[in-house]
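Review session, final week

We close the course with one last complete record, chosen because it touches almost every idea we covered. It is Amidase, a protein from Actinomadura yumaensis with 460 residues. Go through it on your own first, then we will talk.
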Amino acid sequence: MRPSDLTLAEASAAIRERRVSPVELVDSVLDRIDQVEPRLGAYTAVWADRARRAARDAEREIAAGRVRGALHGVPVGLKDLIDVAGTATTASSKVRTDHRAGSNSAVAARLAAAGAVLIGKTHTHEFAYGLTTPQTRNAWDRGRVAGGSSGGSAVAVAAGAATFALGTDTGGSVRVPASLNGVVGLKPTYGLVPRHGVTSLSWSLDHVGTITRTVEDASLVLPVLAGHDPRDPASRPGRPRPGAAADLSGLRVGVPRNHYFEHVDPVVEAAVRTAIDRLADLGARLVEVEIPMARYVQAVQWGLMVPEATAYHERTLRAAPDLYGADVRALLEAGELMSAGDYLRAQRARTLMRESWSRLLAEVDAIAAPAVPVAAVPAGQETVTWPDGTVESVSDAYVRLSAPANITGVPALSVPVGHDAEGMPIGMQLLGRPLAEDLLLRVGHAYELIRPAHGLAPVA
């Protein structure tokens, strides 16, 4: 087994026990990048020399007994919305051609302090405004979409081109690509991970999240990132300490009777329902639940996101509209047609939705549902047609099941639970109360103990 094949938990243990050095691990991941990057396009930039210097520094510190924690010496990829001092934050856009970050984002600084090795920047759908990341190809099938907008991060982790990665999630942009590439995506509670130094898409919906090979890995990364930062107005205190108990006895898991299993590929539904049954085998009590205000989810998501994104880009859109991709430009221009009244109605509906979800999550400890309604579609496919004749855009299909967690701010975790007939990964989503990441990670880890994650994607 190559060091790049190791999960974060395995790599951390190997480094701690002196079976693998940070230099060996980083060299192996860089070799893997050289091997797969021409076929996958996960990265906007790879900092090989910088990463090797950091690995040598980590090796010296660890040899001297100064171990900073589980991430020390472990390579990480950062979505190219996240500032790293002295490097470009391109947002995968021509608009940012000459950009250089003057300082580290909060999360980059926390990773560096923990000794993680920053290995490069990963592709995003331009300014995170999309669900496919067209520059990047799916790690399991290069002819299919990677998912977005954190597609580069998910593909890098799935292919062994990063031991773990960070993404952002505004309407599913961590969980969707994680699900489509067979890895684990965690969107924490709104504000738990600070966003200072992270390019915004929609400030009231944006979250920084993690993409890892396993749930166990996610539980090692989140405590490093979480915690209050006064530079982020939405930031809140919190330091998750997830346990690893495999017994779920007494845990109430909500199974939606509406929304989450509507217009879903039967193969996806079957895989997720089988996974939910496995949670019951572990002692969880399954409770049928009604998702509140489900008919308003899409309208509220777009009603918040579109005007906020347009406001963020207002000056650049007027000064250099031709620098934006056609799809992103159209969405930004559409935001100029929305009134203040439209935005306020979306905010009021969000308040009602948060209140109703709070009541729902008082009745159950977690909700289990599909992460996406269909596995990765072929690149270039624009719509999904459901058996009842309903036609839905690919972006609407992928955002539909992930948006409620962004609107309400509750934590959500995507866990691989199988593959469709063509071998494409399927993900289950676990949602919980605000700041209940420890519980979601415990449930996800209990599931993966009985169904261990597959190895790296078979990049062809």
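Two points worth writing down before the exam:
The chain has one domain: 1-460.
The longest strand covers residues 412-419.
Good luck, everyone.
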